[in-house]
Design goal:
144 residues, mainly beta, 5-stranded antiparallel sheet, 4-stranded antiparallel sheet, 9 strands, 50% strand, globular, DUF4426 domain-containing protein
C-alpha cells in the first residue's frame, strides 16, 4: 500500500499540469522537493490506508529532501514545521507525518481550502546541523 502512494505521487508529478507541478529548491547540498495538490488525486484506498481525508476541500503537501553530496542522492530524515495562510490571513498549523518506504523518506500534511483559494506556505526544514532553511511557496486550489 505504501508503494501505491509513492507510485501515485510520482505519476502525478510526471503527468501533472502547472496547477500542481512538482517544485524543487536547492539549498547547499540538498534538494527539497515539494508539491501541493488536492487530496482527490489519491485513490480512496490509498487515502484510507494513510488516514488522509479525501475531499474536494482538502489539499496535501508532500515534501522530500535529498542529499546531493552522497552518491545516489539518498533521502534524509528532516524536521518540518510550518504554517499555511490564506489571503484573509487565516493561519493553519501544518502537521507533517513521516512516511518511509524502502530508501524513500517523505512527509505529508493536509490543509483545508475553499474553491479558487490561494494558500501561502512557510515551512521550516531542518536536518542536523547541515540544513536549516525556510521553504516558502504558494498554491492555488480549486474545488472539483
Amino acid at each position: 500500500m505504501i508503494r501505491s502512494l509513492t507510485t501515485m505521487l510520482v505519476l502525478l508529478l510526471c503527468l501533472s499540469s502547472n496547477a500542481f507541478a512538482e517544485q524543487k529548491e536547492k539549498v547547499g547540498n540538498f534538494d527539497i522537493h515539494y508539491v501541493a495538490l488536492s487530496s482527490t488525486f489519491l485513490t480512496p484506498s490509498i487515502a484510507k490506508s494513510y488516514g488522509i481525508k479525501r475531499s474536494s476541500y482538502t489539499g496535501i503537501i508532500n515534501i522530500a529532501v535529498l542529499d546531493t553530496s552522497v552518491e545516489g542522492n539518498p533521502a534524509v530524515p528532516v524536521e518540518l514545521s510550518g504554517v499555511a495562510n490564506n489571503l484573509l490571513d487565516a493561519r493553519i498549523d501544518l502537521k507533517f507525518r513521516e512516511i518511509r518506504e524502502g530508501d524513500a523518506i517523505y512527509y505529508i500534511a493536509e490543509v483545508p481550502y475553499r474553491d479558487d483559494q490561494e494558500i501561502n506556505f512557510k515551512i521550516a526544514v531542518k536536518y542536523d546541523k547541515k540544513l536549516n532553511t525556510t521553504l516558502t511557496f504558494k498554491q492555488k486550489f480549486y474545488v472539483e
